[in-house]
């Protein structure tokens, strides 16, 4: 143990100190120009208790390289005390002006969920850009495009020669169906239900 001084406001230890048994204190600090170093060969565990002496939050740095936080809610703030990130048992949230997540410059990115996946924006656009194909498929449900204006740009123009093609028709409820080349775009009840 380094030099030990007992003062009116506490105990001051100068130099490196090793504790072999648990030590209890309410405040731990260093001189203004020094950093506080806590070193352990088996890990560092910090826990907080409430007034009933129940452990309410724990943080651990383990010897195998893990950093763990066990608590009801985990929060990260910036230097201006603005909330940037939070996580609890119900949700994970980011409160940022610009968020970049799930980026892989050379490999694929996969987002899987047992139920719903939502992409929402209260202002601005949502863009899907791809070098190759974009495939949208639904195994059991429907694919809906709900907008007052739907554009399909960049389609090739036909000269009128070649094999006959089909027509793309729209029901009154917005459902799309295909008709033969010269037929009227009329559908029976089963198609436009």
Please state the overall shape, judged from the principal axes of the Cα atoms: elongated
Query: How big is the Rg?
Result: 32 Å
Task: Report the β-strand fraction as a percent range.
Answer: 25-35%
The helix count comes to 1
Give the low-confidence spans.
Answer: none
For the termini, the CA-CA separation is 84 Å
Across the major sheet, the strand order is 3-4-5
- Which structural class matches the secondary elements? mainly beta
How would a textbook summarize the main sheet?
3 strands, antiparallel
The count of DSSP E runs of length 2 or more, i.e. the number of strands, is 10
Please give the share of residues in helix: under 10%
Mean pLDDT: 86
Give the topology string: H per helix, E per strand: EEEEEEEEEEH
Give structural notes.
This protein is about 0% helix and about 25% strand. It has about 190 residues and is mostly beta strands. The protein has a domain at about 165-193. Strands 3-4-5 form a three-stranded antiparallel sheet, with no helix packed on it. Strands 6-7-8 form a three-stranded antiparallel sheet, with no helix packed on it. A two-stranded antiparallel ribbon has the order 1-2. The model has no long low-confidence stretch (mean pLDDT about 85).
SSE layout and pairing:
Elements: E1 3-7, E2 10-14, E3 43-49, E4 55-62, E5 67-70, E6 73-77, E7 83-88, E8 92-94, E9 167-170, E10 176-179, H1 189-192
Antiparallel strand pairs: 1-2, 3-4, 4-5, 6-7, 7-8, 9-10
GO cellular component, one term: cytoskeleton
Membrane topology: Single-pass type II membrane protein
Protein name: Sarcoglycan complex subunit protein
């Amino acid at each position: 143990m380094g030099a030990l001084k007992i003062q009116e406001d506490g105990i001051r230890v100068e130099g490196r100190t090793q504790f072999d048994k648990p030590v209890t204190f309410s405040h731990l600090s260093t001189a203004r120009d020094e950093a506080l170093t806590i070193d352990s060969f088996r890990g560092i565990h910090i826990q907080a208790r409430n007034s009933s002496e129940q452990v309410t939050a724990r943080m651990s740095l383990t010897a195998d390289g893990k950093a763990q936080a066990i608590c009801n809610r985990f929060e990260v703030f910036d230097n201006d005390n603005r909330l940037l990130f939070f996580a609890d048992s119900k949700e994970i949230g980011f409160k940022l002006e610009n968020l970049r997540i799930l980026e892989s410059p050379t490999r694929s990115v996969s987002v899987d969920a047992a139920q719903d996946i939502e992409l929402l924006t209260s202002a601005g656009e949502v863009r899907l850009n791809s070098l190759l194909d974009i495939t949208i498929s639904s195994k059991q449900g429907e694919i809906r495009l709900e907008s007052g204006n739907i554009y399909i740009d960049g389609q090739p123009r036909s000269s009128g020669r070649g094999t006959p093609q089909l027509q793309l028709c729209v029901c009154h409820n917005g459902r799309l169906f295909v008709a033969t080349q010269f037929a009227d775009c009329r559908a029976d009840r089963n198609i436009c239900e």
